[in-house]
């Protein structure tokens, strides 16, 4: 079986050893193995790799329900700079489908290392910046339709 984390290796040679108990060597490896845990339904692994001080924010029943209700479509690591001493960050996108709707979960996760072991500490959703295809038209600008009228008196009045 190919590992769900996206590196193209087998599960046994990629995230499998971490799920079986070996410590992940980097924040990125831990994040990839946590994604694999969601795909495979290994909620115990998610709990074991969550930092003890923030474990109260982890809801095992919610994680299990999300894991089971989702069809996992892939993982993309957007940014994973080398960790700074005992702190590291990974920004990623996890794609999944629920009830026929494809969704993207984009997050910047913080990882901390204690006694040589990396833990997931917290994550913050990242909203994608929406970019306009055309420049913004002001109310008093000429209407882009070419009528010669102000936008507010032409196409803007219909909006």
SSE pattern: HHHHEEEEH
What share of residues is helical?
10-25%
Gyration radius from CA atoms, angstroms: 22 Å
Average pLDDT metric? 93
Strand content: 25-35%
Given the C-alpha coordinates, what overall shape results?
Answer: elongated
Give structural notes.
This protein is of the alpha+beta class and 159 residues long. The chain has helices spanning 16-19, 27-40, 43-48, 60-69, 155-158; strands at residues 71-79, 87-98, 101-114, 117-125. Strands 1-2-3-4 form a four-stranded antiparallel β-sheet. The radius of gyration is 22 Å and the shape is elongated.
Characteristics:
single chain, 159 residues, 4-stranded antiparallel beta sheet, elongated
Q: Which secondary structure elements does this structure contain, and how are they paired or packed?
A:
Layout: H1 16-19, H2 27-40, H3 43-48, H4 60-69, E1 71-79, E2 87-98, E3 101-114, E4 117-125, H5 155-158
Concise account of the structure shown:
The chain has 159 residues and is of the alpha+beta class. It has helices spanning 16-19, 27-40, 43-48, 60-69, 155-158; strands at residues 71-79, 87-98, 101-114, 117-125. The protein is elongated, with a radius of gyration of 22 Å.
């Amino acid at each position: 079986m190919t590992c769900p984390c996206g590196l193209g290796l087998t599960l046994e040679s990629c995230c499998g050893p971490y799920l079986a108990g070996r410590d992940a060597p980097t924040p990125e490896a831990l994040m990839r193995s946590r994604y694999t845990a969601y795909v495979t339904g290994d909620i115990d692994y998610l709990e074991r790799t969550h930092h003890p001080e923030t474990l109260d924010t982890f809801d095992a029943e919610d994680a299990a329900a999300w894991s089971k209700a989702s069809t996992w479509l892939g993982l993309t690591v957007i940014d994973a700079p080398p960790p700074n001493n005992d702190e590291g960050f990974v920004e990623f996108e996890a794609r999944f489908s629920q009830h026929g709707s494809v969704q993207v979960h984009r997050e910047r996760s913080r990882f901390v290392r204690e006694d040589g072991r990396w833990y997931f500490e917290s994550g913050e959703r990242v909203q994608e910046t929406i970019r306009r295809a055309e420049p913004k038209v002001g109310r008093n600008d000429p209407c882009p339709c070419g009528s010669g009228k102000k936008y507010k008196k032409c196409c803007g009045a219909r909006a």
